[in-house]
């Protein structure tokens, strides 16, 4: 009998060394550390984040615990992880993978806390994050639409797994400990789409709780009392059966390609074909599928010197799942109606104003309140058409701008253009310097420190550069 998915992941992760990581993977992890620490500093200014920290300090303060980013006070391992994840999550500035996951919220917070408490250096942190990101992205890659179709919100499901692996690697668990961690995490993963469908708001705790549950899984595995089910991922009553409806690779929904996959793909070429390199970056506080639409229209506007007053209409072709978010079984907007918050709105904003505000950056419209933006509302209702297509690549729209004089301009914006390296992230963070809570020079200092993240003896320098007390 071949080794199970959990066993293969566990063995690979336990033996993974910094020297095994290709330079492109190290660079990608550095970019992810930078993005999410930037997000945490911005998020620390938000009332919801401040309330979360107050709650954690009331319930889980621990003088010799882990440092909460920006705030500087210390809490339990699990409490500090939850707080750090909330600082990141509240902004919307985060990574994105397969439309409905953004693993960094949970994985970077797990990494910062466990690296500090385990006393590991920058190389070890990068290695732990590489292991966690690879587990989360490989488990999620083909299965996100099917998970959503079951009513589960994919983000916290797959984030729990990745956060657990990060913590376990920081703790130096062996192969058996890794398998136990994966099994416990699979039993702790949770998050329902009904929260967004009914408007109850509980999705706000999904990602921070995924971070917390992931760390809990590693802590419990380290005790050695739980062996962990070998077939926890592919077993008939395991992870995939619960969260996708099949333990045999049958997909009820997919972005493109076949609806039957070989589960062997999940662990094929581990350490050679790095799935984490496909992660993109959310710079706007909106769903990842709107980012390419915004950028595409901005480029067309600039390249062809388009006067928005001369636009007759805009046609956006995108994957049908993106128009029926989160899933066709229970879409937020079954008819894909033009409204503030729909793709139509972001297309209209980009066409009218030449951009959309990055989180923490400058604004474009005359008002920051979409409800008061009458020109954009009129434009989106009368001049933007969004069409969903089967088997069109995810996050890869084709935009055509039709002009009143009969001319038209078209561009395809592939997903790969958003898979930046560290330099790409740095370039897109420049717009944040003017409003950076710790001063423009402070953001530059953080950028330079992240470039040298594999040289630091601990995470203390990263905490120092994300704190007003530095």
Please tag this protein with its features.
470 residues; 2-methylcitrate dehydratase PrpD; 60s Ribosomal Protein L30, Chain: A; 2 domains; 4-stranded mixed sheet; two-stranded antiparallel sheet; 19 helices; 8 strands; globular
| Helix fraction by DSSP (H/I, runs of at least 4) | 40-55%
CATH topology of the largest domain: 2-methylcitrate dehydratase PrpD
Oligomeric composition of the shown chains: single chain
How are the strands of the biggest sheet laid out side by side?
Answer: 6-5-7-8
Task: Find the structural class using helix and strand composition.
Answer: alpha+beta
Portion in strands = 5-15%
At the fourth level of CATH, the homologous superfamily of the largest domain is 2-methylcitrate dehydratase PrpD
* Residue-averaged pLDDT: 96
**Biggest β-sheet description:** 4 strands, mixed
General description of the model:
The protein has two domains: 5-279 and 422-464, Orthogonal Bundle (2-methylcitrate dehydratase PrpD); 288-416, 60s Ribosomal Protein L30, Chain: A, CATH 3.30.1330. The chain has helices at residues 5-15, 23-43, 47-60, 77-89, 104-118, 122-140, 144-149, 154-170, 175-188, 194-198, 206-223, 239-244, 288-303, 320-323, 343-353, 374-383, 422-429, 440-451, 460-464, and strands at 61-67, 74-75, 94-96, 280-282, 311-319, 384-389, 398-403, 408-412. The protein is globular, with a radius of gyration of 22 Å. It has a four-stranded mixed beta sheet with strand order 6-5-7-8. A hairpin with a 6-residue loop joins strand 1 (61-67) and strand 2. Helix 5 runs antiparallel to helix 6 and helix 6 runs antiparallel to helix 8 (154-170). The protein contains 19 helices and eight strands.
